[in-house]
Every structure is written in structure tokens, then in C-alpha cells.
Amino acid sequence: MAPNPGLKHLSNALATPDQLSNSSSSIDGVPSDLETSIRCAGVQLTQTAGILLHLSQDIIAQAVVIFTRFWLGADGGSLRIYSAKDVSAAALYLTAKLSFQPTSPRSVLNVYTLLLSPGASPLWFVNPRGAPKEPPSPDTYVLSEGGYQSARLVLLRIESVILRTLGFDTHVALPHTIALTYLQTLGATRPAVARRVVEHLNGALLSPQLLYVTHQPNALAVAAIYLAAREEGVKLVDGEWWEVFDVDREELGFLVVGMKSTEGFMRAEAERWKNKTIPMVVDEVEAELERRRMMEEGE
Amino acid sequence: MSAKSRWADDDPETEAIVAQQKREKEEKRRAKAEKQRQLEEKEKKKKNNDENTQAAINGESGPPKKRLRLSNDPDAPPTTAEVDQQDRKKQSSLLRFPVREWGPCRHVDNFERLNHIEEGSYGWVSRAKDINTGEVVALKKLKIENSPDGFPVTGLREIQTLLEARHSNVVYLREVVMGNKMDDVFLVMDFLEHDLKTLLDEMREPFLPSEIKTLLLQVVGGLEFLHAQWIMHRDLKTSNLLMNNRGEIKIADFGMARYYGDPPPKLTQLVVTLWYRSPELLLGADKYGTEVDMWSIGCIFGELLTKEPLLQGKNEVDQVSQIFALTGPPNSQSWPGFRSLPNAKSLRFPPSAPAPSSSGSLPLLPRSRFPYLTNAGLGLLSSLLALNPAARPSAQQCLAHPYFREDPRPKPREMFPTFPSKAGMEKRRRHHTPEAPRRGQEAPELDFAGVFGGAPGGDTGEVGAGFTLRLG
To answer: C-alpha angle with apex B456: B453 to B460, nearest 5 degrees?
Structure first.
């Protein structure tokens, strides 16, 4: 069957093999494990900020996909030039601007100031001691007017950088609604299954295999349904039902493995960076690279 | 104490019904599966037959071998049947998505500027040549006045909707390129020789009825596609319709376009150039839909017929009075609910407005304005220019209208006359078309008291729509 141009709004631009094997950061000498950790922390930062901004999950997920695309390929952004936190904030701001729920630069920057405050942040990779038990002192997370003005300029500049890096293609189709339609088609309407499907789809945003930029949303939806039905003990129709949704067995298998491994990956990340912070700005990345160099020379 | 939830139904009758429903569902499912199986068998048989005939044609016998095309031999292009066959052999009945990638913007220096075309409300357009391929394109520079919110959302929407709207009747956005400064952003689009507005100005006679049908079918066809993709154009007018010398017409300038949803989000009423703006927008509706585009189509239809813009209001108040002069004033039958629109409160109707006809059919526009139009044509125009947005046909309904099937039939595109291109070499004359409203303006508080003459408020000093005086 020839590609159907009318399906554009259900599909995404995908990363080329070249973009997946060469990132701008790796060319600049950032080890790939560090890049993966930072990217994954950036996704969590985006997700948390989106929740604090009361944005709906589809906007947050789109922002995460834009954030993920930005770092890919030799023409993408490098972690030694752009701070992950700035790209995260700009991706979220840009996506919200195009949605039905735009938000202001001030709100975005307030939230990011809180989330990146070493004393007040609830994020484990920014504040390893964990969210403070007592309300922290406001001056640890309040953005001053002067600080706001300079942060706003950075936000808007990075927005332009993202747009140019992606060739102004901001279209992101998500699997969530597709999955719900498929569930209805399959007659699997138990809320527990639907919830698990959405959990898998949101979890896959963190996947180190970058599932959202390597697979079309229909395939992600099918894999999440397959997993959720398994886990909830719901029997779906006999036969290779995934083919009805244009996913072949091989792709489904890969995606299922990828989605299932995300949890283990996240645990390993938390273990590896225990009591340490993940560098979210260029200076911290440089410091981490320097630290690793010293370790190597010391041995 | 009963621990049973009060929601749990222990009623045997309900249980019986549930069981019955389950059985029915099961049966349906089985029937479906059976049907699917039969279909598959049929398909298989057909495939076998096909393969056999194919084999017979190729003089082969036995089971057909998988043939791999190893070279792209241009002398032996595979026939479509062959391609079909190969696809099916790979058992890929799976749908394939269009393959797309992303990459960084190129620099505008890849294009050589040829001549300036025009300045619209959202940017400067010039004709340019791609240095690498020699292709002539239209280059549109986006206006980015140091906006406090970063990259203007209108520009983003224009790019996003144009990238999505790949249709033969929508102008093709090839890529977005950038200049040296952060704010220099250019859209690279296919170049078309004419815009409909200039063409109509230069023509001595209006288009023939058959030509009007071809043009209108294309525009509405493009619009149907946009609406199906959840895109509203919100600035349809003849100067935004581009035409080439092969009789093709394309919708351009998506500076006002945006996605809409269901339920519709709250939207700005400051859209659509005044002369093409629908009455609900003029009356201040902040919830509206694709009907605003259909009204513009009605205005464009009228303009094609007479060569002159149909409703040339001097300002919002004058525009409303011109509309009512053409269609007659609204009443609660012809447009239920219009009274609750923000700006409708100041409307004062002539006391002896003609009693509404109780029949549900739409009132026709005055025939005297369009003497050469057939009844079907007048019916279509009247429905497009219905005051009540709900009474306007959708783009899809419009395409199915009998007007397009009666004689004279739409003229084939290849038979279209060609015209000398103004945009091709010469600088374009500026026209007196009002511009699309600017984003960020305050929505004006309008006083429509003067629409029907008499009461003050209309700052035109004119005598309103006229018909009230005749009655008086």
C-alpha cells in the first residue's frame, strides 16, 4: 500500500539511523552514558514542570518529544553548548504556546527556578536529599525580577534555537488517544487496562531507546496495549490482532521489550547517581567531564 | 451490617439482561470472525488467481517465484500491477505511514532574490531562485517584531498548518530557511504566477460560468481538506488565492490559520479581512467554527461572478449594514440566538421589518444582483451567505451541490485561458483591499445602532441599508 498522505496528523517524523548513531554531544566528547542520563533527567524535569504548570499530559508529552529530538544527530544540539534545563523549559513553553493552553514565560521560569533549586527541588537528581519536609525558605526558589529578565531572554533565544534545529517542524502525534480508540475497538474497556496503557505510554517517554522518535504512534499504542493486557490478565481477541493496527510482530516484540525495560533502567539510573546530582547546565557538564578525566588519570 | 456496595446489582433481572447482552456480543464477535475468515479466503483465492494469470502472461508455470528488482532499470519500469503483486507477496497488507525526517534550517543565501511581489500583513513576499536547482520559488519573510512572547504564535501556526496541509489546492511550503539574525525566518513556497484578486482586476470580462465552477471546486476542495485536518483558514479572500497558468488555484497565506477542536476553544474574533468577515464574527462571537470560512467562500463566489468584491464595508458597522442590505435583517427564526452575541445588543431593528416567512427554507438573495446565475447557483450562494452559521453548508456539502453538476459543466483545467503574470517580473500594484486584522488588537466595542439608519452610532454618515426608509 502506498503511504497515505492523509495520515500525516497520525504520524511523526522519525530519526534517521545517522541521527541515532551520531549526536552532537558525542562529537563534542560527551560520553554516551552521560548523555543518556542527562537526557533522561531532562525528560523528568519537563514532565514535573508540566504538571506544576497544570498543562495537560498531551502537551507535556509533545514537549518531551521535541526535547528528545533536539539532541539527536550531528546537526542537533550539544550538551556542551546548550543547557538541558533551558531546552526543557523552551520546549515546554513552545509546545504550550501552540496548544489550547498557552502559558507565560514568567510561569515557566518560576517553575523551573523551583525545580532546579538545590534546596527546594523535589527532584532526586537535583536535590539528592529528597523533597524538603518543611516548607523551604522562599529565597531559595524565588526568581527575582532581574533574574527573570535575563532568564526570559535565554528562554526565548533557546526557543528559536529549537525551531531552527528542527526545521520548524513542531508536529508531534501522540499514541495516547490512538491507544484508547484501539482499546475500544478490541472491546477491552476495563479502566485498569486503560490506565496501565497510559502509564506505559508515559513511561516510554523516558526510554533510553528513544521509542517516541523511532516508532510511529500506532505501534507504541499497540505495544502498550499488549503489555497492559498481559499485566492485567485481560484476554484480547485471538489471532494477530496487532496487524489490524498495522504493526508487525517484530516491531511489537521490540517495543514490548523496550517498554518493559524502562523501569529497570530508571532504577539503575537512580542507583548510579545516588547522592549525586545530574548536570543540567553546561558548566555542570564540563565539571562532570573534568571529574571523569581526573578519575581516569588517577587510575 | 451489610458490607455490600449499594452499586453492586444483585437483581436477577439485571443479571439476566447482562448475560443476554454478553451472549449477543459473543455471537456478534463470532460472526465477525467468520466473516473475516471468509474474506481472507476469498482474498487468498483471488491472489492465487492473479498470480496464475500473471504467471501465464509471463509464460511461467508452477508457483511464481519471488522476483527481486535489483536495478533501477529505467527502461523497464514495473507496471502498477507488478508493483501491487510484489507488495502483496511481501504480505505487507500493513499500512505505511509517510516517511518524514527533520533537519536544521538551511540559510536564505541558498536563494537568489529576483523581484519583490507584495507586502501582506504578515510579511514580505519576493520571487526567488534556488541557486542549487534553479527552481523559481516564492520567499516570504515572516514579520517578527520584537514580540514579548518569543517567536510569534501566528508564524508558528502558519508553518505548522502549511506543513500539515499537503493538498493540490493548498500552496506548497517547501521548507523554512533562516537568515543571519535570529529573527530572520523565511518560508520557501512554490511560486504561482497570479493571485485571483489581481487577475480579476486586470480582466475585462468576468470568468465564464464553467470557469467559475472549476475555480470554486478547487478552492472548496482545498478547504474541505483543511477542515478535515482540523485547520481553519480564517483569512480567505481573492488576494490569498493563487493561480498558475495551468488553471490550478491554491489557497495561500496561513497567517491567520489555526487548529480548532471539538468543543471549540475560545478564539479571537479579530480574524478575516473585513469584506470577507462573517456576521457572527462582526457581532463579536468568540465561539465560532469553520462556518466563517464558508462565509468567505460565499463572498469569493460573488466576487467571481461580478468581478467586484461583494460587500465592501468601510468599517465594521458599515459592513454589517451592507450584509443586512443584501440578505435582509436577521430574525429569531432565520438565526436563532443571534441576539445573545456581544455586539447584537446595540442593533436596533426597523419597527416594521418584514414578517419572516414561516417556511424553513432559506431565503434567496435578490436575483437582481446576480442576473446571470442559475437557480442552483443562486441557491448555493444564498446558503453560503446565510446569516445563521449553522445554515451554511460545510465544504463537503458544498462540493456535492447540484450547481456543479448542471450545465455548463466545470471547464477542464487544461482548457483554462492563460494570463500575463504581474508577479512574474513587475512590481505589484497595491490594491485597496483592507488588511486582515492584527493580532493583539483590542476587539473593538462596536455600536451597531446605526446599522439600519436613523439612530446615531454609525460614523459613516450614510443612510444605513436603505430599506427601512422605503418602509417608512
So the answer is: 70
